[in-house]
């Protein structure tokens, strides 16, 4: 690391260099704990380069020292962690990180330090670890693999995950627009102008903080102004239009079916941490539905493949130009240009203008003529034609360049003798340009190979998406402008539906003509391939030309095999700089053409974006809704253990004082059985079905009959799916002749509304009825226990609660405490019980009124767990416990609720299938353990025959199991093969540490005559 | 992310505003002939699906619009939705044509 | 076959790896084979390998429309486990898992089976009860699988959010110590190399256009490279099963949907086990390369596009960011999808068909990768002996007419 | 009038608005009753009887509403409307409708307690809405009177565009979800979280 100043003085060339930085605003930042100074407007890359830093990271596999080769999102090498503690974020490209005061950056994938990395020894052993070496080794002895793997895992990976929880908020927005333009360069701006003038709603997004793209780094004129001046005017015009939304720092990450586009906007990453607002989202994920999408994402320059082309100081020609022009940084003092096309000549001229010595341009092509080449010659730069860089000489450790060797380009073969050596500390390479076709290709856009460009460009698509400018393979300014105005206009016109809107007149652009490029996929070197040299293709994943040849030699020849075998293109840069070069090498190796070798597929995202933005607002307390019953505040105030049930939180039990859960459950059960209990059942599904055919409809929905139910009465019903399996149960009330109210389980409430609607609309549309869910309108409580009647009778009511007037399974409506209520005499606990349905807004007050009235009778709130114990004591099934999607009503001995008379109902036919009526069914029985204190574990299995060790043949499992405080012993239900035929038998349940035996009995353990609930 | 338009209420929205209901036009044998449905007919009704690569008739629910079910013709390879129609409508001609291919 | 080992690697290094030969040949199709397997994914290649290795049947071709291993074998999240509830499922997945244990040695190809342990998180009481049942059933089947406490889970997975105020506080987990992952491509490549070496012809870029039959018996296949006669034909083409079935007039209880997955950028190790979370829907492991491999759900609708949609991914990542809050500042690197077969009961179909000589192995849904070795073994046995292998028998097509479903989804439905 | 207190879904949060730095105003409406009305739009007798009671024809254009006196009638489907009534006259309207439609194929449900109505007002209401739903509420075709069912913050909801300049939108959510939606709004409507879509903006750096 030298201390030389690499910042071009502001005086040079009338201030032509460093136009994006504010030289009066110095910013302080650290990289690997060392403090540096940069300027406002710098990227982390430009600021570090200006400070003479050349080494930014270590490669993935060989841990080779790496510099920066690009100036944009294609950068494969220079990844660092930014931030610390809760703001630590790994794997940021320094080329995309905007500098802010106090920025903390840390290098990655090195130990103990970037300059001295122990794992760099991998480079020495690199011959032993070619592509796919791990498939061939580490197999013996098998038990050592976990140890090998441990070492591999710790060697791999890039940055570290944050240790602390991210405090930032993220959010998402959904918008529609007529025309979405990805990329704010000249093409994007031109298309935006054309579309906006037509009146289209236009969104134009660019991933960088600025617009204009390459306008400041190219030659030519637009309407006799410099391209940059035109771009500035265009942006100003767009910003003043209220039908245009301009989004900087916003990456269009993916294009999905039907022109749905995802964009990630970074709102605060460029602001110093102290100035970030806590409630301002860090990232905002945009979900855009666009009528037309225009891809104006430009092109990425290709590196050239030569020996040691990965050394810090080797850089893309356009990147070097960009650093000088935009940030006033010269990445070196003496630069050699290596190119196969004209564009790099601009870099040579720019660097020379910036004060960098440019002794030579090495041009792959034979003596070529063009205006640009002449300009370089006129500037006194020597051009060596038909030549290549055959190797790069470095200082010890490979961290900086000292010179390059030049050899004649040979038509075939891999070997070359260098004929010259040039001293330099910077190599600027250009292998041509690859259109950024990613977005175009995400859905099903195809690409075709262009022989002139030697790369793929957009071809066909079924989506309303077009590519323009460099993304479409046009590198001439005038063609780009014309095409962009045409396609922008066409997109705006078709999206707005205007028949003949006026078209903005495109400006006239001109640019010097270029001479054609000549493909070069491999620069020959002294020695061949892996023999001491490495020709890198995929820099981040350390894939070399030799690796590609090896893969081809071994038969991994399809592009997908090649990628997977060598890991080519699988790194965080997704092969932006490497894919086409790799195809070139593969095609050469297989002696075929690139299109015949294949094309890679592009998948979202364009560049990696935060998982936080994908979660968006749904994080922490907003992760998922918590559904609250109207009694929620009371539960909270009374130390209730809440249990998640679907999205609801339901009371599990209430702990008094130092009680544990079991003690609370016991207390609540005994209070309910002996005195009175109250439970919040608000989450139970409630659905009204009304119409002349409501009864017929319910007969088809339920397995038992509802059309015969009398108004004012309740009936328990079972629902099967079409497979014949039980999936819900509940009590249905006939409110009036043509009007029913169904109850469902909490978890199925929404599903069943949909189920009913679907059957009505799609299968029986002729039935006259309406289905309306009313779950949310009512709070529902069960008041249960011997004193429940006394409590209700204490309250002011229009309803007669007397034993004679209000009999089991009756329904009555009226007023309670002046509030309209519906009351059903139904019981899941087995006690005398009333379920009271109250308009939700009065629910809490009603609950409190009942509590006050019930105080003298010992009224106790109970939760779902005590309810479950009580229902089990009574032999009642619970959906989800006794059912698991494979259980029929007959298995549960509920044949009485499965109609034989009804012609058709859901599930009836399926129940007759051989396996469902076969003799091997698991049937529900009661189980009493030999030791009454022993509670069978939930889900344990009984075996046919007890053996010393598994496997043992299982004959069924425990579906519900509790300690019953009422009976002072354990009880359980089992689903046991031919269970009802085994009544009185003792079954063996082998557990991990012991065997529990239990007797098969009737599942009704308590009050089998129903005297209590009928009291 | 599919963009779907309900033929009943014209509500247009993302696929997440709708609910998919599987292949359309599946006849429930017991609705027409409750007494005589063989095991194979019941199996076909419950499980066997055309599952074409190409034009597919399917049911969707307009969940965030009118709450009604409707049919759509969608290409399962390109995702292009070429037609939507009422749940009570018969299969359109192009579906039969595609099936024969 | 060139043996792979540290010694041959070192020897070849001396020669700059110029001595390595083809891992598999690319032969021209013969006019006739005893057995043609359609589909060179993991299942098809494993079937061919075991036909050759265990049944000495080597006049076998595996035909593939694209490149071998290019379907779901190369698109899954590589999880291997066998802690299934139903006896039938547990049997085949455990056979498969146990074969994975020695697969690298058997194939002389390191498939990197990594039995690093797999946790299925329980986040509601309902789920806890369900998984307890799994653990009991697994234990009595002889599968190593047990319940562990929330504390033990936290010890193994320090980055897991176990806050009691979390939306769904962790209650415990079903733990399979020797569940884990393997390198998916290597499984396909290893079987391909193994089968090829035993004489099996792998015919890539050879799309099948027809299945020919005479008198209710299969006679061969038509391909883009011409007709190939065969005494037996096996369809093993997950994602395209019904398209092949149509060629043979089979009515199948299968729908094709896209299953979504994504990976994060690589980071240093933070997760050494596999986690699956049913309540919030998501699963995740960390690859040896450092990427967090995230499995999403399936899109609802029939889909042959092999593209990722976004809602399923979004749902999964939202959930995983709740479970692992530190991942919010990590980035999604890549998303993709595979086309999976969904059967009427979400369990596979293995066995004979009504067409004589035509066999079917499909419908693995989301369980395809983990079942490759076991599936290949029992399917090869079924084809060789023309009767279902005992472990394959419950998975016959006939079960759908009988109602003898093998349903692994502990039914939705929650207590009162 | 009942003897018991009335507690709305968000009663426990009414006090907390003062210290919130929000870019919009929001409150829970506490003066409305709601009736869910089912009947077929092509059933002339039903439509006529409903109109007689309400004093106005039920709207039949999708996603529209009609205002008459203090009553808003919101189109929900081709056979469903949500009628909001001033709380004072709610019982009267409910019983009149019920009575008048007895002989029709119709369902009249009092749903006054099923939903919470969160009133959002201010110039930035629409940009808050698009942070939680899958459609673009900033589009100009959402004029006052428009009704749109939506999934807001993963919750089934209904947006009624009540007024513009400044915008007033009533967001109807089912009662049990109201607290969650409220929390969601507190975060996404924060004054620091503005979006500022489609308006004249400062030109970004070039």
Structural features, described:
The complex is a heterotetramer of chains A (1015), B (101), C (416) and D (206). Chain A is an alpha+beta fold. Chain A is built from 24 helices and 50 strands. Chain A is 22% helix and 28% strand. Chain B has one domain: Folate-binding fold (2-Layer Sandwich). Chain B is built from three helices and six strands. In chain B, the strands form two sheets. A four-stranded antiparallel sheet of chain B has the order 3-4-5-6, covered by helices on one side. In chain B, strands 1-2 form a two-stranded antiparallel sheet. Chain B is globular, with a radius of gyration of 15 Å. The relative contact order of chain B is 0.23. Chain C is α/β, with parallel strands linked by helices. In chain C, the strands form three sheets. In chain C, strands 1, 2, 8, 9, 10, 11, 17 and 18 form an eight-stranded mixed sheet that branches. In chain C, strand 1, helix 2 and strand 2 form a beta-alpha-beta unit. Chain C is globular, with a radius of gyration of 22 Å. Strand 31 of chain A pairs antiparallel with strand 16 of chain C, so a sheet runs across the interface.
> What distance separates the N and C termini of chain B?
28 Å
Question: Whole-number radius of gyration of chain B?
Answer: 15 Å
Count of beta strands of chain A: 50
Instruction: Count interface residues per chain for the largest interface.
Output: A-C, 130 and 114 residues
> Proportion of β residues of chain B?
25-35%
Low-pLDDT parts of chain A are none
Separation of the first and last Cα atoms of chain A: 93 Å
> What is the CATH third-level topology name of the domain at 170-297 and 435-510 in chain A?
FAD/NAD(P)-binding domain
Mean pLDDT of chain B: 94
Secondary-structure class of chain A: alpha+beta
Largest β-sheet summary of chain A: 7 strands, mixed
Can you count the beta strands of chain B?
Answer: 6
The radius of gyration of chain A is 38 Å
Helix content of chain A: 10-25%
Strand content of chain A: 25-35%
- Helix run count of chain A: 24
Strand order of the largest sheet of chain B: 3-4-5-6
CATH class of the domain at 170-297 and 435-510 in chain A: Alpha Beta
How are the secondary structure elements laid out?
The complex is a heterotetramer of chains A (1015), B (101), C (416) and D (206).
Chain B: E1 3-5, E2 12-14, E3 19-23, H1 29-32, H2 39-46, E4 55-61, E5 69-75, E6 81-86, H3 93-100
Antiparallel strand pairs in B: 1-2, 3-4, 4-5, 5-6
Chain C: H1 6-14, E1 32-38, H2 42-55, E2 60-63, E3 79-80, H3 87-101, H4 103-107, E4 118-122, H5 125-141, E5 146-148, H6 150-156, E6 172-176, E7 180-181, H7 184-197, E8 201-203, E9 208-214, E10 217-223, E11 226-235, H8 241-247, E12 254-264, E13 274-277, E14 282-286, E15 292-302, H9 311-323, E16 331-343, E17 349-352, E18 358-362, H10 372-385, H11 399-402
Parallel strand pairs in C: 1-2, 1-11, 2-8, 4-13, 11-18
Antiparallel strand pairs in C: 3-7, 4-6, 5-6, 9-10, 10-11, 12-15, 12-16, 13-14, 14-15, 17-18
Helix pairs in contact in C: 2-7, 2-10, 3-10
Chain D: E1 25-28, E2 32-38, H1 44-54, E3 65-68, E4 71-77, E5 80-86, H2 87-100, E6 107-110, E7 115-121, H3 125-129, E8 147-152, E9 155-163, E10 168-174, H4 178-188
Antiparallel strand pairs in D: 1-7, 2-5, 2-6, 3-4, 4-5, 7-10, 8-9, 9-10
Helix pairs in contact in D: 1-2
